[in-house]
Amino acid sequence: MGDIAEACGVSKMTVSRVLRNAEYGVSESARERVLACAKRFNYRPNALAKSFAKNRSGYLGIALPFEGLLGSAYFSRLVAGLQEGMAGSDWQFALFDTLSDSFNKGDKLAGLYHEQRVDGLIAIAPHSNEEYIEKLTAEDIPVIIAGEPTQHQNAISVSTDDEDSIRFLSDYLIARGHREIGFVEGPENLLSARLRSDAFHQQMAKHGLPVNPNFIFRGDYNRSKTRDNALQFLKMKALPSAVIAANDLMALGFLDAANICGISVPATCSVVGVDDLDAAKSSYPPLTTMHQPVRKTGEIAMRCLIEWTETGKKPEPLKKLSSTIVERASVQAYPTHAS
Amino acid sequence: MGDIAEACGVSKMTVSRVLRNAEYGVSESARERVLACAKRFNYRPNALAKSFAKNRSGYLGIALPFEGLLGSAYFSRLVAGLQEGMAGSDWQFALFDTLSDSFNKGDKLAGLYHEQRVDGLIAIAPHSNEEYIEKLTAEDIPVIIAGEPTQHQNAISVSTDDEDSIRFLSDYLIARGHREIGFVEGPENLLSARLRSDAFHQQMAKHGLPVNPNFIFRGDYNRSKTRDNALQFLKMKALPSAVIAANDLMALGFLDAANICGISVPATCSVVGVDDLDAAKSSYPPLTTMHQPVRKTGEIAMRCLIEWTETGKKPEPLKKLSSTIVERASVQAYPTHAS
DNA sequence: TTGAAAGCGCTACCAG
DNA sequence: CTGGTAGCGCTTTCAA
Fold it and tell me: What is the spatial distance between Cα A282 and Cα B224, in angstroms, rounded to a whole number?
């Protein structure tokens, strides 16, 4: 930078101003000269020096459990949103695994911030409210939880509204004449799965409809496991006219089983899921499901985070985005064999 | 750091030495005092300052097309390897999308390096030999291509050996009495897909076996597309006794179709794939496939990159890792109806 | 074994 | 509108 100042016969300051795109405080002629010179010298601003001087790393961290999440459609959608939310800005992504260094996750992540490796964090932990959130929040580190509502006091989160999806789906099927409705459960130890299950039972109760325990089975958010369980389930003499799966993966597993058994969906039994995975578009038959605005979640989370790190002002604590139904071909309205 | 030097009655230098874990050049007593003091002060080294002084960002970039790859099992496996390769080191991951900023990918990535935002790059571009590789290589930027062999001169890559997998699979089926073998093709525009296809034809020719064009169809590395095409395919009166899918996703799609049609795998038709996705373990029936050492690929790539950035010595140009078969339940040996 | 000094490349702050 | 000066927190170099 000194070189180019010298070559142009101006001070480093002027050069700095021009290069920083400061719109004021520099004459046009000087600006042009400097710009030309910079190009000639093939000048590259040094991000390290800049970071150091401004006391900002320029990196925003994404913290998530690599195993399981990194390869999921959910992650890629969320990141697409994060990207969108940071479009046009000069921030960069850093990536951290909350599983490694598990012995001291809180310290690790907090350290990242204190050591100025990142200026803020997005925590993706849809599967549990990890304890590290508490520590980060307590230390006033800019961190936003994406994808899961959290019970932590003062923590900021942006998520989709799981319970609402299930309620909607229950109403949807009931409105279409279904009375006997089955449910495929997610893993017991996951908050979101419990929330979904509760919402189903509540909504059935609200409509005065009984829940037949035979029509409930576990799939653990897993396609092949659900398939295997459904293979048993479908042997029952009396089937429900519809089944709600707590997520798409399980709905897909149910379809796999139905195809193997030669049971027709939706003629014999309707199926709905939650998530709207890419695969739900092209399943056999295409799956009616709740589209979760995961991408939007990421976008909002990122905007909040940037706002927070740039202004220092902590945003509102919680946002829940609601889902919308995508009607495809796995639901039969007014089934003739409905009880 | 000054504070703690003062408090201990030593110089900043001594403190620096202690904190850097320099094994020599400092007395035990001084070391202990400094360490204690640092703990008391809750001292945090500032990574920014360190980076600046050492002229290293501490970040290694992973460049990939977010869309399509970010949510894939392939990506997560590769990253697991990268992580392994960087275990114990002080490097961090940065993440860049080769699709955004597509207008000037080369410049963008090169810029990242020149601006010192990253000290090296892993390029994951299994689907094409992007032009930006050329630019990076020409500028002697430490970049390693993971997952795909490359034709670029001087570029360094670590990849799995696709052709070898297909050759092995062909031999494997032939050795088990199969004579009429079908093939599910990947997308035409992908190098790896063409390579796999060529390998199949070559190997059949080598054994003096004809390839029936009716037994070849396209799946484009896509599960549901393959399912739909296979649904047609399986209507043929004469089927091959085995089918090789150029990847697991397509093998899975083929299984979907077989299940829907009620065609028994492997009794009627055997199926094999390439990749060994998680889903291949639990498909119906479980899939016999080639396990690609994707994780290993990542690990080696990362080790090479670190070596390169730390020593400045460019590693050997190309490594190909070979695959091993995982025998499950989708192949029938010595089918009775083989021609 | 220790310490003093210089400097990494940039920005902030205050003068002119 | 412009330029000087003073750091940012660490490492490197050299001298004691």
Answer: 6
Q: Would you say B150 and B130 are in contact if contact means Cβ atoms under 8 Å apart? A: no
CA of A29 to C1' of D2 (A): 13
Q: What gap in Å lies between CA A144 and CA A315, rounded to an integer?
A: 10
- State pLDDT tens for residues A80-125: 999 999 999 999 999 999 988 888 888 899 999 999 999 999 999 7
The amino acid present at B332, given as its one-letter code, is: Q
Cα–Cα distance, B24 to B21 (Å, whole number): 9
Report d(CA A200, CA A167) in Å as an integer: 6
Using the beta-carbon criterion (under 8 Å), do A47 and B57 form an inter-chain contact?
yes
Alpha carbon of residue B157 to chain centroid: 11
Indicate the residue type of A36. A
Minimum-distance nucleotide, CA of B25 to C1': C1
Query: Residue A226 and residue A214: Cα distance in Å, rounded?
Result: 15
Any strand D atom closer than 7 Å to A12 CB:
yes
pLDDT in tens, chain B (339 residues): 778 888 888 888 888 888 887 667 788 888 888 888 889 988 999 999 999 999 999 999 999 999 989 999 999 999 999 999 999 999 999 999 999 888 888 889 999 999 999 999 999 976 665 778 888 999 999 999 998 777 788 899 999 998 999 999 999 999 999 999 999 999 998 888 999 999 999 999 999 999 999 999 999 999 999 999 999 999 999 999 999 999 999 999 999 999 999 999 999 999 999 999 999 999 999 999 999 999 999 999 999 999 999 999 999 987 899 999 999 999 999 988 644
- Rounded (10°) angle between helices B162-175 and B191-206: 30
Give the 3-state secondary structure of residue A158. Answer: strand
Q: What is d(CA A215, CA A181) in angstroms, rounded to the nearest whole number?
A: 7
The answer to whether A284 contacts B260, with C-beta atoms less than 8 Å apart, is: yes
Two tokens at A2?
A: 């000194």
Residue nearest to nucleotide C9 (CA to C1'): A49
Name the phi and psi angles at B107, rounded to 5.
Answer: -60, -40
Residue of B54, B55, B76 to mutate for A, most A C-beta atoms under 10 A: B76
Q: Could you say which residues 19-38 of protein chain A have a Cβ atom less than 7 A away from any atom in strand D?
A: 24-27, 29-30
